[in-house]
Specification:
Blueprint: H1 28-31, H2 49-52, H3 60-64, H4 79-92, H5 96-106, H6 108-118
Helix pairs in contact: 5-6
Bound molecules: iron/sulfur cluster (2 copies) and zinc ion (ZN).
Amino acid sequence: MGAVEKRYPAAITPDMIAACGMDCTLCIGYLRERKPCAGCRGDDANKPSHCAVCVIKNCDQIAAGESGFCYECAKFPCSRLRQLDKRYRTKYGMSMIENLERIREGGLDAFVAFEQERWECSECGGVISVHRDACIYCGATKG
Ligand code: SF4
Ligand code: SF4
Ligand SMILES: [Zn+2]
């Protein structure tokens, strides 16, 4: 991995969990120092276009629901979400659909606490990026 200037988030917070179940705190786009993305629910200034125009984020069913998450939708998990989930499961070992089921069952705060523990580097306490094989702060390998 090249040297990435990075930020050090104090904690994972509920507003960083996207409608699709992605925890944006884990995204390298959020953790980088230069022009960091504010997360799916944040402003679009530094958001890559594929996330700004995302059909899940902009889905009418999300706006129509109360929770702000896909799990509430009658079509859940729709083909778009299943596609995204498959890509992340295969490439990054993480499932958005599993995240959403966890939120539906235990609530958002419990999920955030779970994420905090799951993605905390055991060596340095930093957040492990889902997009990297090792901790971007100390280099410790995942797992
Ligand atoms: S780039 Fe996309 S996935 Fe990453 S933090 Fe921004 S909105 Fe979230
Ligand atoms: S699961 Fe429902 S709310 Fe989520 S993107 Fe698909 S259709 Fe929209
Ligand atoms: Zn570390």
